[in-house]
Amino acid sequence: MTLRLDLSTPQVFAAGYHADLAAHRATFGDFPQVPADTLLAQVQASCLDGRGGAGFSTYTKLAGTETGRKTTVIANAAEGEYLSFKDRMLLEHAPHLVLDGLLLASALVGSSRPVLYARQESMAGVAALARARGVELIQAPGTYISGEASAAARTYLQGISKPMDRTTRLNRAEPGTKNVFRAERGPILVHNVETLAQLALIARYGSDWFARKGTRLFTVHTRTGAGALVLELPHGSSTREILLKAGFTGFEIAAAPAVLTGGFSGTWVKGETLNTPLGALPGGEGSEQAIAAGTGIIYPLLQKEDPLTVAASFLNYLAAENAGQCGPCVNGLPALADAFTAATLGIPGAAAEVARLGRGVSGRGMCKHPDATARFALHTLETFTPANRPSRPPRVLQNS
What we know:
four-stranded parallel β-sheet; 15 helices; Rossmann fold; 14% strand; alpha/beta; globular; 400 residues; 12 strands; de novo design (two linked rop proteins)
């Protein structure tokens, strides 16, 4: 896989490629000294959403987490979805901005335990920088489920990179009936590294600046020999605008059967929805019409590809990546993937079986991996009904 980083419209990446501390300071200045209440108010006004997939309010998590030295703040760069590369690009090219954000978040909740959770290949270049700033390092194994927030916390607490029980909450800002808090360890706050980089910018420039010039990162798969491209684009960018920026022509976009946005818990986009903004907008205005950006993955189908067949391969991957902690994961997801594959072949009753299994595993797993997988399967079937699915592959464009 060839990876490229586009710096034509940078904010997070404004210090350039492989920015060292000198380049970072020359671009962004010294570490921002902002009173906690002032910064928290700026984060609230910015409506900064989490960039790890769930899109949860950053302000709500920061304001709702109990303060104290025993509180742990984890910067999550595990990037469990294999189609996503934005977080490793951040650690490679803007590590100091990420670390600034981590230390700012730690200061906001009074934490003395900042932690960076990342894959080995992402950790190598940033380890010395993190240690120099008092940040503890925890290695993520690179599995799909290891990127989930409670898996990051469980790795830190127990060395097990699997999600916690769905009833467990890491802090009081989260839903749940059981607390992870212990006498020796306090609450845990987990933020994606892009979220923290954006927090570092808001601390420097404020929420008004963020509304005007804030950005979002996307991993765009060109589906050619060029590999994947990480783009930084203004808030409110649509799927069409993102693809055009990545070098797709209007004809290629029109010929694509659909575009998967946001990763395996995301949305299939086609037709007029290609013009709909991705992700929450600064200030919140118009966000209800936007499509969730999820993990920022943009995966266009080639003209010759059948959407259901591609989705079946993704579902088989998700079934194989199950947490192995309960029946809905171990038995339900492989059965769901098999039924979906049968549906792609037109086997009578298979689509109904997908719906039955999807309802059966949702809400019943130890963690939420079955819920997300079932949601993707059902959303795919709803999007590509027999009437919308091509009866035969259309003319194939050359793919070089």
